[in-house]
Amino acid sequence: MSVNANDLRKGMAILYNSDVCVVLEVTHRTPGNLRAFVQGILRSIKTGKSMDVRFSSAEKVETVPLMTHKMDFSYKSGDDYVFVDPESFEEVTVTPELVGDAKNFLTENGWVTMTFIEEKVVSVELPPSVVLVVTDAPEGIKGDSANNVQKLVTLETGVQVSVPLFIKTGEKLKIDTRTGKYMERA
Description:
mainly beta; CATH 2.40.50.140; 2% helix
């Protein structure tokens, strides 16, 4: 299926120079006395490299279908992460580069949304929030409650988060995966 370059959106997969690419960023530009164009940053699926590309606004671009699946995190194998499809029990191994900062919030059997292009994983997306257990919380200092004072605690995944003084070891906390910040007790 082909679409106008004006219809390109972040996250779409397109065919560019005989290579499947994911659109990372799109900007529509209309300079003073020139014709409008679409500036895009694309990442090649084969090489993993990003490129800056300019399309005329009327140019046709071939799109590639994306498949998304809910997957459960199973275990870490060396540096790679292994996920399992809860329906077919098929395992998928993903590199640390593709997992990115999501590694800070992955727990056993925690779910993620994976996007596939031609059976290859192109992105791993966490739910908006996760519940994690506090493994190490230093005691708050008595009388230190004048203004919304925070302390650093360590969560079960090893990531550290600022929380209010009353949080103790063993408590479950709801963490925003987009910002990495404490939301509330769970």
